């Protein structure tokens, strides 16, 4: 299997399509927002007519009010892998949700079930004192606190929840992870375009989402009786569009805030993926001809009978 990873706006979809065409592949989505139905514009979901006839998996598999976890992704993703392999095609996993990728390849720890009562209490505590969850985690589980951004309330809440239920740090629970994917070897391709160009592309895409009807998409979701509390409304763009509708942000400020938060998110994604073992970096956008050619060469060598076990050297394009 081949993995195409990288920050938002780096051209992962373009490169995945190119590789799928070249090597008779099928694409498995690895984006935590694109799994939801009815979320298209803000999720940057490729319309069916632009998928070039290539089969895609794990798009539109959950309703916005469903809880969809990394464990769900791992289970469905491994099922898709088996289906693709059975057809004699190449699985290509593409997306920017690093935790989903790790769950797919390495498995997850058998953590406790969600405790909704405890989670409501933790959420209320964080609302009263912003930063309280990260402070608590920093005190009792520094390794986990170092991996989770102070503003990522969902992950902080889960880490504290696990710690309270298990009576031990979540980092130790995760150390007991089991269920590593077997029967596959993988080539991990990471996209790392020049930072200034990446940020410019992110800004342009955020503005384009609002121009193409992101606010109207949010209105449509609300009209379908989906609550503002649904997880997808926490995603970049959707959160700002919702605040715009509630008149907490002006249209211009909604775009500006989405651009800023998206750039910050891209930086966090790069930090995560740089910790991924075996990632081979290409310093360009996925749609660049040089990037495509380099990825083609890497994939061809990887699929050869005597392909190297060690990662490819990272080369500029």
Q: Quick recap of the structure?
A:
By secondary structure, this protein is α/β, with parallel strands linked by helices. The chain has helices spanning 12-23, 70-86, 98-106, 116-128, 132-140, 142-147, 153-166, 170-175, 195-211, 214-223, 238-245, 251-274, 289-303, and strands spanning 2-5, 25-29, 56-57, 90-94, 187-191, 279-282.
What would your notes on this structure say?
The chain has two domains: 2-108 and 178-303, P-loop containing nucleotide triphosphate hydrolases (Rossmann fold, 3-Layer(aba) Sandwich); 116-175, Histone, subunit A (Orthogonal Bundle), CATH 1.10.20.140. The chain is globular and about 55 Å long. The two termini are 23 Å apart. The chain has helices at 12-23, 70-86, 98-106, 116-128, 132-140, 142-147, 153-166, 170-175, 195-211, 214-223, 238-245, 251-274, 289-303; strands at residues 2-5, 25-29, 56-57, 90-94, 187-191, 279-282. Helix 2 crosses helix 3 and helix 11 (238-245) packs antiparallel against helix 12. The chain is α/β, with parallel strands linked by helices. The protein is built from 13 helices and six strands. The model has no long low-confidence stretch (mean pLDDT 91).
